């Protein structure tokens, strides 16, 4: 039994990981990635079965964000190659949301750049 198997079994028994165990998972190398995924799936399957919930994201503004958050592909100066467009029109957002629901989504989210959440973009 690997340390990840033991950790998954512990989680199935309702026992939370210690700080050290959680840090070990976060520090796992690429060679352990599939073992981490398998252990997480065992826990997920125990608590939720094989059910999935489909959410759908409507990006109402893409790229062109004035912020420079280095983790974000839509940030100012990003070279990520994401689509860039200003605000979608209301009918476009509604049509995108309806497409998500028609595709089986139970929840539709709309998103915009982080700075727009605080103040309107210009």
Description:
- By secondary structure, this protein is mainly alpha-helical.
- It has 2 domains: 3-48, no CATH class; 55-115, no CATH class.
- The chain is 43% helix and 8% strand.
- Strands 1-2 form a two-stranded parallel sheet.
- Strand 1, helix 4 (90-102) and strand 2 form a beta-alpha-beta unit.
- Helix 1 (3-12) runs parallel beside helix 3.
Write the SSE topology.
Layout: H1 3-12, H2 19-26, H3 33-48, E1 55-59, H4 90-102, E2 107-111, H5 114-118
Parallel strand pairs: 1-2
Helix pairs in contact: 1-3
Number of strands: 2
| Strand content range | 5-15%
| Alpha-carbon distance between the two ends | 56 Å
Largest sheet: 2 strands, parallel
Spatial strand order of the main sheet: 1-2
Radius of gyration: 20 Å
What count of helical segments does DSSP give? 5
Outline the low-pLDDT stretches. Answer: 118-122
For the record, the count of structural domains works out to: 2
Q: What general form does the structure show? A: flat
Structural class: mainly alpha
Mean of all residue-level pLDDT scores? 85
What does the oligomeric state look like here?
single chain
Q: What percent of the residues sit in helical stretches (DSSP H or I)?
A: 40-55%
């Amino acid at each position: 039994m690997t340390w990840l198997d033991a950790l998954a079994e512990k989680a199935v028994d309702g026992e939370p990981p210690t700080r050290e165990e959680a840090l070990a998972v976060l520090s796992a190398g690429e060679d352990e990635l599939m073992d981490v995924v398998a252990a997480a799936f065992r826990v997920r399957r125990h608590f939720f079965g094989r059910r999935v919930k489909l959410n759908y994201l409507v990006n109402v503004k893409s790229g062109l964000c004035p912020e420079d958050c280095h983790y974000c592909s839509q940030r100012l100066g990003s070279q990520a190659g994401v689509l860039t467009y200003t605000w979608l029109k209301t009918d476009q957002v509604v049509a995108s949301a309806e497409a998500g629901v028609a595709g089986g989504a139970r929840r539709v989210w709309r998103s915009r750049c982080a700075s727009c959440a605080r103040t309107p973009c210009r």
